[in-house]
Structures
1.
Amino acid sequence: MGKSNPWIPTWSAGKNDWVIDFRVEGKRFRKNLRIRDKNLRSTAMQKARNIYKKAWRDAGSSNREKKVSTFKAVAELYIQQGGEERFLPKIVKHFGPHIRVDEISHLDIARAARAIYPDAKPETVRRQLRVPIKAVQNFAAGRRREKIPDTRRTRWLTPEEAERLLVTAADPEAINLRDPNLETLRKITFMLGSGAGPGETMAALGENWNPATREWWLEGTKTVFRARYVLLPIRAVELIGKIPDSGPAFPAPDGQTYTFRKNRGGQMAVAFNKVRDAAGLGKAVTPYVLRHTRHSWMYAMTKDWGDLLDQGGWNRSDTANRYRKITPDDLGHRLLEHGWDFRRDPGASVRFGEKVSLRIPPDTS
């Protein structure tokens, strides 16, 4: 059975000194105290006790340090758990395999920016260096927001369904909808062309329209959408028709300006639902589905992820991921057949046959 106080020193006549001999966490401490007077036992006891306490403090610190993983190891776990990998390899390479995740300071990040991105703009450094490092550190500290798998099915309209909706909205009298100026058709078209939400559509201002570039400035909302420019395809511009120079661009069917409420997007639902039902579309098709439709259409045609994020206006990019995988491969061609072209630069027009090359076999007769 071990001593209750293993640090207590003993007098060694051979060494003419007080001696300690104990272990802390497997490490042996055996040394002379250099107190060469047998009568100074209390002094030796105090010094031995201090050495023993310090040994345990050092052992605790060492254990804590061992529990803190390296940035490289945490980054690998972060990626395995679904974290963004794109910019981390350069960062890990710069810091090497040994630096702890909690050791990287603001100065270290500044030095890394100078080494990895010497000519980059501050926003690039923030996005490609500071944000990934912070994400890994938050992951190590258990502060990472857990991603919930996106299992929600996003309803969007096929070009054929949208055509039925537009044709119905273009003849409101046939469905007993009092809409002499076709304002419901204009709003449906604007949302299909811009991806604006219902509330954004009713708040859209004529002075924010740039006909030269076919871009509309949407001022965004406090919590849902960022302010942004959206590009309208030519067909949307043609169906919307005349746009006022200033003021609300899309009034109610009776021509009156909307009075905004907390849930202002629902104010167009009555007229929209009447058109939807007459077009034979189910109740799952709400005004908001038009926003989903536009972004599904645009990405299917352009495959431009950056443009999707810019024009979608999401405060987080997670939501935009669903628009990359919910449409069939032929959707872009079908959209062109119906006159919807979301490409910023479709290229110069060509005559039939200009891009066709025929290889005529030689005459062997």
2.
Amino acid sequence: MPAPRLEIDLDKIYHNARTLVDRLASRGISVTGVSKATLGSPEIAGVFLQAGVSALGDSRIENIEAMRYAQVPASMTMIRSPMLSQAERVVRHADVSLNTEIEVIRKLSLEAQKANRRHGVVLMVELGDLREGIMPDDLIDTVRETLSLPNIVFKGIGTNLACRSGVSPDSQNMAVLSKLVDSIEATFGLTVDIVSGGNSANIQWVFSETDTGRINDLRMGESILLGCEPLHRTPIDGLHTDAITLIAEVIESKVKPSRPTGEIGQNAFGEKPTTTDRGHIMQTILAIGIQDIDPCGLQSPVGTEIIGASSDHLLLDSGSYGLSVGAEMMFQLNYSALVRAMTSPFVTKIVKHHRASMVQQDWTSGLPREQ
């Protein structure tokens, strides 16, 4: 089997998604399954839908187009504010988009009129994480203009936390979002359909609160794919944390000094490494590198330690393991390592089906190739 590769267990992803859908449904919250880390894989999207997600969300229009091309039967939400240059494609392929700039919404309106389509808009509100969002004091005016635009349907509001600054969803910032919903409904005499409280980082908040207010949707990717919550990377009870694993192949295994010799300058990435002298070690090199993964996001097998990486090499102190050239090692991944590995064309993606067959996914066309 080719290496390096990601092995993707659809049964475990289904279990994670179904479990979260059911648990959140008991709180009156639906799940938008986020497909961006899978590059819009139609097979994984299909598993999300079978598990009961209400819609699919992606930050790249190319991924949404791939799922449309594969005829994935779902409502699609563009979860990154659309670029003006992609407004026509967003209107054509996405049912809803998350927005922060009225100039973009005006452009979506124009493109929707040309296409004779109606496009849904969710307005994102800034609640402290300082990524995207309309300032709360400006929201009513933005809603007013959004409601006036032809072929645009105001669907609701949302927010995003924890992605840039690590701000945690809590009773205070979620209450602000609920109050903004009440204000919009009172001002305009309408019902807000979607109140998207955030992403997988909201898990702890949801299940620690007796009242989740007006929040009725969460956008979830990491918790489904990796079975953990993003704030502390804590495994979620009852979920699989090994639905996706990375396999890499050994290309060198030798006893070497642990400390480099010679004058130390910058390495290939502009860093000046510091090392600890631990004597001679069994150094193992695997054929994967920073171009393909985030080394800091990998968990190596017990008894081994990642000690460095370059563009194409991952270096381990393999301890007492006698790893020979050609041997394979398995790693668990965090979200950062997963996204980079999924994006790399040099990492093969192997999908495990419930029928025990294996499929190599062609992530550029969105169509699987039988092995």
